[in-house]
Design goal:
Helix content is about 40%, strand content about 15%. By secondary structure, the protein is an alpha/beta fold. Helix 12 links the parallel strand 9 and strand 10. Helix 8 runs antiparallel to helix 9. The structure holds beta-D-glucopyranose (BGC). The site of beta-D-glucopyranose has 11 residues, from loops.
Length: about 450
């Protein structure tokens, strides 16, 4: 039997643009309209229709005894046209959060999970410092409607990933391929996070709430040199890790700016997080200065290596910099047959339980199968299955495992035998995107 600590809790996470469907004013809506942008040709306008079916989804959370839910607000619904706020959307979000609160489900609310209004995109989004004021105005407005209900916030989701995918990989939105633009975008994100951190705290303090917890969801990947004794691979792994993670984290979370990170708005120094909020999926092997995927190891259906220790190592690295409680704000895998998801969760939770670090939450990504950004509907990450045609939801085996762990506040021998033992990671590489990708692309994928 694995027992969880008394102050550790399981939850699950989603993101608005990936589940809500039908948001015609967002950057992702327009991005999906362009042929070729989404690998399998699907569109985020469908997703899980959660905007309409949210009560049904809350009932599922309740059925699974889930008490912690991370969700995001879609800015484009709240402010579809510049300066025009849609009160009905704000009230609809309030209702969703209120229903959950009444059922004892605590919300961890993200203000930006990769999606924003098209008008903001047209202004250059987070590539320009002068656009941060729009982000602040949206947060302030949203707080007026939900600020009394929610005490835990993430300003941004994975700004390092967003900057990379848009400005370096050229896969999303701006479609740039420039390291200078990527660093510039990261610097804008850092300033946006630090400004939003102060804003949320000030707002809640003025209203008399003293329990506010704010962070941003920091994506960590564990970089290791491909050839352990090769000095260039070692340097490469260090450099990638610094640029993608530590350097960004030190600047955003601690206010300690090391080149090339800059305090572009000259904001006050000092810590700007109340918990370390980490999204962790996999590790990468660095060959020279390139990020590659290790061979002959367990992998998910997207070809991502399954490496639970990486979570602990990256959490330790952040904790060495700032001693705060740790939330795993996302962790999960693409497993279209639900053949090894329970084992994946078990392996990561076991690593958490065996560690001395102060892990307080684990939010499984994802609650529902959903729209997986430019990979479309094909990769399935959910503990709940969604038939996109009929919009029918079905609990997968993993969902029952999750429910059992919550009820027992740990993993019993019976649950292990029933849910975990029958699971097997792939021996041979399976990649659900294979039919859409060249061999080269399959190899390059994280
Ligand atoms: C993102 C999620 C995404 C997941 C799986 C994370 O980086 O925050 O939105 O679905 O990875 O790709």
């Amino acid at each position: 039997m694995i027992k969880f600590k008394s102050d550790f809790a399981l939850g699950t996470a989603t993101a608005a643009a990936q589940i809500e469907g039908g948001n015609v004013d967002s950057n992702w809506y327009n991005f999906c309209n362009v042929k070729g942008n989404i690998l399998d040709g699907t569109h985020c306008k469908r997703a899980n229709q959660h905007w309409l079916k949210y009560e049904e989804d809350i009932a599922l959370l309740e059925e699974l005894n889930i008490g912690y839910y991370r969700m995001s607000i879609d800015w484009a619904r709240v402010e579809p046209k510049e300066g025009h706020f849609d009160e009905s959307a704000l009230l609809r979000y309030r209702k969703e959060i209120e229903i959950m609160k009444n059922k004892g489900i605590k919300t961890y609310l993200t203000f930006h999970h990769f999606s924003h209004p098209q008008w903001f995109e047209d202004k250059g989004a987070f590539t320009k410092a002068e656009n941060i004021k729009f982000f602040m105005r949206y947060i302030e407005k949203t707080l007026e409607y939900v600020g009394d209900l929610v005490s835990e916030y993430a300003t941004l989701n994975e700004p390092n990933v967003y900057a990379l995918n848009t400005c370096l990989a050229g896969e999303w939105m701006q479609k740039n391929k420039s390291i200078i633009k990527t660093i510039n975008c990261m610097n804008v994100f850092i300033a946006a996070h630090r400004s939003a951190y102060a804003l949320i705290h000030n707002y809640r303090k003025e209203k008399g709430f003293l329990d506010t917890m704010v962070s941003y969801a920091h994506h960590v990947r564990h970089f290791t040199p491909k050839r352990q004794n090769n000095p260039i691979d070692k340097k490469g792994a260090r450099l990638l890790s610094f640029l993608f993670q530590e350097g960004f984290f030190e600047a955003a979370a601690l206010g300690n700016f090391r080149f090339p990170f800059k305090n572009i708005l000259n904001l006050p120094k000092g810590p700007a997080i109340d918990m370390i909020s980490l999204n962790y999926y996999t590790r990468g092997e660095t060959k020279y200065f390139n990020d590659t995927v290790k061979e002959n190891v367990p992998k998910s259906d997207l070809g991502w290596e399954i490496y639970p220790d990486g979570l602990i190592k990256e959490a330790q690295r952040c904790y060495n910099l700032i001693k705060l409680p740790i939330y795993v704000s996302e962790n999960g895998c693409c497993d279209n047959e639900d053949a090894f998801r329970s084992l994946y969760i078990y392996d990561h939770l076991k690593a958490i339980v065996e560690s001395d670090l102060p892990f307080k939450r684990y939010y499984h990504w994802c609650f529902l199968d959903n729209f997986e950004w430019s990979d479309g509907e094909l990769p399935r990450f959910g503990m709940v299955y969604c038939d996109y045609e009929t919009q029918e939801r079905r609990l997968k085996n993993t969902a029952y495992f999750y429910k059992d762990m919550i009820q027992n506040h740990g993993i019993t021998e019976e649950a292990y035998l029933r849910f975990v033992k029958p699971c097997k990671y792939h021996k041979d590489e399976v990649n659900v995107l294979r039919e859409y990708l060249s061999e080269e692309d399959v190899r390059k994928r994280r």
